[in-house]
Design goal:
single chain, alpha+beta, four-stranded antiparallel sheet, two-stranded antiparallel ribbon, 19% strand, globular
């Protein structure tokens, strides 16, 4: 059969449709290992914030908004659990400013839910009911 041989020859000549590769092969290969950064490597106190996130982009936006706040050392956000965890510097962390930053980033329903210590979470209250919006957990 001449037809399949013609197709194979054409495929080899034309290729897959992508442009030419810019990668070059050398006799020696370099292996680069990428290790994800560890959250809160220094062991700072943490605060958990309930944030209504829909997707990974929401989680990224939450991280961006929180990383810019004074008193926040590290941030991780999980859209599946709707929880952002922040490692904090207790001396300069401001819970109300943190919630305001999230509200400005269109996450107005965020609530500080847990902290490693009562001192770790600065008083953030729900203004509508005057009930504390912070619950502390004992470790």
């Amino acid at each position: 059969m001449k037809y399949p041989a013609t197709l194979i020859a054409a495929a080899l000549i034309i290729g897959c449709g992508q442009g030419p590769s810019t990668a070059t092969k050398t006799a020696e290969s370099t292996v680069v290992k990428v290790t994800p950064a560890e959250f809160n490597a220094d062991g700072a106190p943490t605060v958990e914030i309930d944030v209504n996130m829909h997707c990974g982009a929401c989680a990224a936006n939450v991280c961006k908004a929180l990383k810019e706040q004074p008193g926040i050392v590290d941030v991780k956000a999980d859209a599946e659990t709707d929880v952002a965890t922040v490692a904090i510097d207790e001396a300069s962390f401001d819970g109300e400013a943190t919630l305001a930053a999230l509200a400005e980033a269109n996450f107005a329903d965020a609530v500080i839910k847990a902290a490693e210590s009562a001192e770790a979470a600065v008083e953030a209250t729900d203004e509508a009911t005057e009930e504390p919006a912070i619950e502390t957990t004992d470790s």
